[in-house]
Each structure stands twice: as C-alpha cells, then as structure tokens.
Amino acid sequence: MKITDVKFVSIEIPLDVPLRPAWDPTTSYKSFPLALIRILTDEGPVGSAVEFTPQHVMGVTGSQISYLKSSLIGADPFTVERIMSKLRYAAFIGSKPWAIEIALWDVIGKACGQPIYKLLGGSQDRVKAYASTLQLKSAEEHAEDALFYLSQGFRAIKLRAHRPEPKDDLKVIETVRRAVGDKMEIMVDANQAWTTEPPFWSFRTALWMSKELDQLDVVWLEEPLPKDDLKGLAELARLAEIPIAGGELEWGVHRFREFLEGGVYDIVQPDPHWSGGILETKKISALAEAANRPCILHTAGVGGLWLAANLQITGAIPNCPYFEYILEPPTWTPETRDVLLQTPIRIAADGYLDIPQAPGIGVELDEERIKTYTTQQV
C-alpha cells in the first residue's frame, strides 16, 4: 500500500453560544478553526484526523505543506516510525504535524479491519469519563451543573480554578463537594501551565491549595505552576498529598522522561494531537507505567475525531483509568463537539465511555457537514 495524496482541509465550526474559557476569560470564542487531514491510498483506505488551526492550515506555510506532502506521497502508511522522523523535522521548523500520524493509524486500522486500540494491545474496552468543565461560574451554578451531570451518569467532574482570588476557587469546590457528596469524584485544573493573564499562582499558593483540596478528597490538581518550572513542580509534588498532574502542552518521549525521572508530575497527561501522535503517546504511557504512575490523556478539540482518536489510544493504555469528556452546555455539548461525526460520542448510563469498535479511529464522518464548514483545501 502506498500514500497517493494528502489533503489539508481548513474548517471553521461556529458556536451557537460564545465560549469564555477559564484559561482565557477575556476572550469570547465564537467559532473553532480546525485542520482536517486526509491521507489517500492506492488500495482504498482513507485516514482522517484533526488539529487546531489558529491561522493557516495546521498553522504552517505553503512551503511546509509542500514538504509534508513530498515526505508522505509514495510512502507505505504502515511505516509509522520512518514517517515520524520526517514529522519531527517538520515540528522543528514550525508546524504541528501530529494529526498526520494519527491519520496514518486510521489507514492502518481500516486496512487491517480493526480498531486502532486492538492493534496496539487492546488493554481496555471501556474507560471512566469525567465531565471536564470549561468556564468560570458561581459556586451555586457549578453545583447545579454537577448534579445535572450526575443525573446523566457521570461519576466524576473537573472544575477550573482560575479566579482572581484562590479562596473563591476553593469556595466553588467546597460547594460542589457538599452538593454531590461522595457520589462524584472531583478533579481541579488551575490552568497555570500557559497562563497569559492573571491570576499567576505562586509556589506558596499552589501548596496551600493542594492541602485544602486534599481535605476535600480531590483526585488531582492539574497545572498548578508554569510548565517550565520543573523544580517548583517537583518540590510541590514532593510536599503535596494530592497528586499533581500535567504535561498536555509538551511533546516527545524524552520530555516526558524528564518529568518522570525528575518527579515533576504524579500523573502525566499527554495528548496525542499535541504530544507527538498515537505511537509516541503509547511510548510515554509505557514510561509512566514503568514508573508506576498513571497516564491520563488530555482531550480537547471539536469535530469529534479528536475525542475518538484519543479514545483509541486510551483503550491501549493499561495505566489510564479516566477519560476527559469536555462538557459545557449550552456552548459545548456532544452535538457541538462531535459535529463532524454522523453520531455523537456519549457516555453509558454508568458513566463509562466505550472504545469505538469500527476499524481505524472507529467513527463515521458526516461529509455534508464537512463541506458546509470547509473554508480552504490544499
């Protein structure tokens, strides 16, 4: 089998209700740009994957797209490691090519007639979902949301802690804990890894918050300090009783080895779309497994393919007990997030997600919607 062409499709997905995310509260998102990557082959299977596109297709120039195409056309899609050497070079010169690797696995799965996770070891068929909230609301509103998610089957929720006063964050988490009791697990994300505007947590604030959250039986504290403050993160992980999590903005097995050997994180959170693709994420999970630490994927993106691809690699990871399921109605619903899929991905009544069983990434695309939202193709 040979790759005959690679299509880069720019897509703009409108939001019916604007989104003000906790990590960027002064910005109102009215749409989300995506790049849909499609790999065509001479034997029929077509691989698809998506990536965020802040400016151009994949955020790269025309010359970089030409380089990527020339590196892929004529290649055997099964030679993932060989192709990855080209993609790593593309990353060095400024692109974000990891969706290409994910699309390769979609081709491979379709050619073999198997979902990706089974080709990579088939560790689990289901995984516990946690409702990952995005916006900052009042304590009462968050409590109401948590009770609603509980009624829908969720048994875990992640709250954002990014208010000007950390004590106000704590009040929200305390209110949600009182509302749900021991029926839901609670995770907390401080979004300090890439903060561009206040609040900026100090080490002392992060340590104080970790102790308070431990009293509320919070499962983990995510991104409590800047991502490059490795010494601070390692010291926090050493002193805190609650697990410290992070790593979504990082890529490459060597960077995650540094985290694990340095005791930077108790839980690593790569995202295949940002961390180097599916195979690289599998390697990262193996490093974490050897260190006896969980590897719980970060999952973002709209369109549905992002979530489906991350579910596939989750199914191949034995040390991944949770899955991030973003939910923030009315802005972010399964229908909004999975708009490019024929059928939205939903949790089961017990709060678990089933790994899609169809070949490749395991989902069917809605070609008409793709046409509707396409703005450019190269």
CATH class (first level) name of the largest domain = Alpha Beta
Average pLDDT reading:
93
Structural class label: alpha/beta
What share of the residues does DSSP label as strand, in percent? 15-25%
Number of domains: 2
Task: Just name the CATH architecture of the largest domain.
Answer: Alpha-Beta Barrel
Shape: globular
Separation of the first and last Cα atoms: 23 Å
**Helix-strand topology string:** EEEHHHHEHEHEHEHEHEHHHEHEHE
Low-confidence stretches: 55-59
**CATH fold field value of the largest domain:** TIM Barrel
Number of beta-strand segments: 12
Description:
With 378 residues, this protein is of the alpha/beta class. The protein folds into two domains: 3-113 and 367-377, Enolase-like, domain 1 (2-Layer Sandwich), CATH 3.30.390; 118-354, Alpha-Beta Barrel (TIM Barrel). It has 14 helices and twelve strands. The protein has helices at residues 62-72, 80-92, 98-112, 116-119, 139-151, 166-180, 203-215, 230-239, 253-261, 272-275, 278-290, 305-315, 334-337, 367-373; strands at residues 3-19, 29-41, 47-52, 126-132, 156-160, 185-189, 221-222, 244-246, 267-268, 322-326, 352-354, 374-377. Strands 4, 5, 6, 7, 8, 9, 10 and 11 form an eight-stranded mixed β-sheet that branches. The protein has a four-stranded antiparallel β-sheet with strand order 3-2-1-12, sandwiched between helices. The chain is globular. The two termini are 23 Å apart.
